[in-house]
Amino acid sequence: MSNIVLQVEDLHTSFFTRMGEVKAVDGVSFFVREGETLGIVGESGCGKTVTGLSILRLLPEPGGQIVGGKIIMEGKNLLELSKKHMRAYRGKMISMILQDPMTSLNPVYPVGDQIGESVRLHQDLPENMVEAEVISALRLLRIPAPEIRMKEYPFQLSGGMRQRAVGAIAMSCRPHLLIADEPTTALDATIQAQYIALFEDIQAKTNVAIIFITHDFGVISRICDRVGVMYAGKIVETAPTRDIFKAPKHPYTSALIHSVPRLDRKDDRLYSIEGQPPSLLFLPAGCRFCPRCTVALDICKEQEPPEVKISENHSVSCWRVK
Amino acid sequence: MQTITTAVKTKKQYRGVTRWGRIARNLGMILPVIIILGLVVIAIFANFLAPYAYDKIDMRARFAPPVWMEGGSSAHLLGTDALGRDVLSRMIWGGRVSLSVSLLVIFITAAIGTLMGITAGYLGGRIDSLLMRIVDIAMSFPGLLLAMLLSVGIGPGFHTVVIALSALGWAGYARLVRGEALRLRNSDFVAQARVIGASPWRIMLKHIFPNVLNPLIVIMTMAVGMMILAESGMSYLGIGIPPPMPSWGSMVADGRNFLDSAWWISLFPGICIGLVVLSGNFLGDWLRDKMDPRLRQL
Predict the structure, then answer these.
(1) Helix %, strand %, coil % for chain A, to 5?
(2) Which among A225, A193, A197, A231 has a CA at the least distance from the CA of A211?
(3) For position A47, what pLDDT does the model report?
(4) B17: pLDDT strictly greater than 70
(5) Who has the most CB within 10 Å: A304, B136, B254, B271?
(6) A120 CA to chain B: closest CA distance, Å?
(7) What was the pLDDT predicted at B107?
């Protein structure tokens, strides 16, 4: 087994609003290994993005705050680092591709400068070496003619190119961990497939660990080695991708998989899960999925289910699973 | 072979078109730059260029008209004022005061305002509230009162005018820049800069500042005229540059009683003010177009 790059233990992140404390991430634990892709999947507002931002300690201020847990990288708890020390980790050790990469480029600088900025911030290199790094980052993202492209402004690039340029910024210092927050959502299906192939290629070349945040099970099946399913601030099931698709244990997971449209089956209506996720301000006492669950038991309403390990890599939080 | 010749031809044609096209398109830059630079150079070398001293009184030649009018003489090309002082000479000297005061004040106020605005807008929170209250105070404080207090306190003169105009003038810039910074703070590329580990200072300087430059420069060029007029207003009230040192503004004010008979006393310095203001505005437009990378290529 390869090394664990990042370990998150019992992470709690809350937003303090006038209405009260919103527990956006409520006790999440997971880890990623070198060269592995972990998918985090769930509905909008389940805390996927907040989990990603918590790792970088870049929560929206004011209001967002990490209230508990540990984020361990190279034996250090990132939550205990000073602000300055943490900045040295961002971009160098951990990178993130934000939700809308199309607008993540500063319109007043050529893309090469923006990739170079990250290199200059973290590596003390002479200027011609910085340029070489920029070109190699663009090559890594398979951008043709990098020497020309690096001098172009964001508006001169097509959407797909901009997306790759943002990827090149993220990969410019060869980070150990890349967090990709729904990078494929804004793309059409063919470009999406290309982009995912690109991720696989980058991972094969650099052995980077990837946390892939998405709501799309189709994307998960293509790229992820393991999947964590999130619901209302908690991870309800973690398993290798194949197991999740073959034998989902949590009713929420199976409902999610069931609601992916399929070409090999003729359904009149697309399946959807009844009801709404609970408000994070007023969480139910028992299992959070209970009000929408079709197979709920009595105990589900009263007590939160504990995490059960059903095999070495597969764990579930559900009263039905023993 | 054929393709090569075509390529060469188009390149030549392209060059030929752009030589004149470029000049025509950049007329909005070339003319204002020539005018402003010309006036600045004239102002710098005033002591060599002016045919008379600015305070040389010649009571025999009072109200002499410009040279091309009946009764005008080549001794006073643009005529003389109520005390027989040469209008051309005073205009040349007056440019010194008007241009240096306005340019200096604009740079001081824009620098302070930008610094305050970016800090307030980006850092937000209590710093923002504090700085913006100071801006409110600066904006509501009567500028004339401050100018009068200062001229009583430290005596009228060049410094007093610059300090008086700068002391409150930065507030407008601060408010404009703060609004822009507030908008940019939440933009994706600033989030991206945070992700790669840029420090707040770096983000303010490298990511926010270049993006507020466009509106800033437009406001700065518009301010040229306002500052010249503000200086003349102060001179008129006797709290500006003390006479006999002329400024364009004070010359216009001096001549206002004789507009029907000796209009040249006011008109020529007025034309200078107009030229500078207009040039500033044209230059601002041109710069705004050039600095937007989307328009640069066209």
Answers:
(1) 35, 25, 40
(2) A225
(3) 87
(4) no
(5) B254
(6) 10
(7) 94
Token pair 């600088």 is found at A109
Element (H, E) at B214: helix B209-236
**Angstrom distances, CA of residue A257 to CA of A218, A247, A267, B101, B199:** 9, 11, 15, 72, 42
Q: Does B195 touch chain A (CB under 8 A)?
A: yes
Does pTM surpass 0.90? Answer: no
Q: Where are the domains of chain B?
A: 28-45+75-296
Q: Of the ranges B106-120, B191-205, B254-268, which is most confident?
A: B106-120
Q: What is the mean pLDDT of residues B29-39?
A: 87
Has residue B13 got a pLDDT over 60?
no
B19 three-class SS: helix
Decide if the complex's ipTM is over 0.95: no
CATH code matching the domain that covers B28-45+75-296, chosen among 3.30.70.270, 1.10.287.130, 3.60.15.10, 1.10.3720.10: 1.10.3720.10
Q: Determine contact, residues A43/A72, Cβ cutoff 8 Å.
A: no
How far is Cα A241 from Cα A40, in angstroms, rounded to an integer? 11
Are A28 and A55 within 8 A, CB to CB? no
| Integer Cα distance of B137 and B134 in angstroms | 5
Euclidean distance between CA atoms B22 and B19, whole angstroms: 5
Contact A58, B194 (CB under 8 A): yes
Asked if B214 is an interface residue toward chain A (Cβ–Cβ < 8 A), one would say no
- In B, which residues are within 8 Å of A169 by CB distance? 192, 196
- In 3-state terms, what secondary structure has residue A177? strand
What domains, with CATH codes, occur in chain A? 4-93+175-263+271-317 (3.40.50.300), 106-170 (no CATH)
Closest CA to A231 of A27, A16, A6, A20: A27
pLDDT at A40: 93
List alpha helices for A207-250, DSSP H: 217-223, 241-246
Chain centroid offset of residue A321 CA: 27
- pLDDT at site A209: 93
Q: Which of B185, B195, B298 would you mutate first to test chain A, the one with the most A CBs within 10 A?
A: B195
- Measured between alpha carbons, how far is A281 from A302 in angstroms, rounded to an integer? 18
d(CA B231, CA B156): 12
pLDDT at residue B9, as a whole number: 47
Tell me whether strands A226-231 and A234-240 are parallel, antiparallel or unpaired: antiparallel
**Distance, CA of A110 to CA of B85 (rounded, Å):** 57
Q: Distance from B77 to chain A by nearest Cα, in Å?
A: 50
User: For position B2, what pLDDT does the model report?
Assistant: 46
Under an 8 A CB cutoff, do B193 and A98 touch? no
Give the residues of chain A that fall short of pLDDT 70: 1, 267, 322
pLDDT tier, B294 (very low <50, low <70, confident <90, very high otherwise): low
Interface contact B207, partner A, CB < 8 A? yes
* DSSP category for residue B238: T
d(CA A26, CA A69): 10
pLDDT at residue B130, rounded to an integer: 94
Rounded distance, CA A280 to CA A23, Å?
Answer: 6
How many CB atoms lie under 10 A from the CB of residue A246? 9
What three-state secondary structure class fits A152?
Answer: coil
Rg (CA), chain A: 20
Q: State the Cα angle at A88 between A85 and A94, rounded to 5°.
A: 115
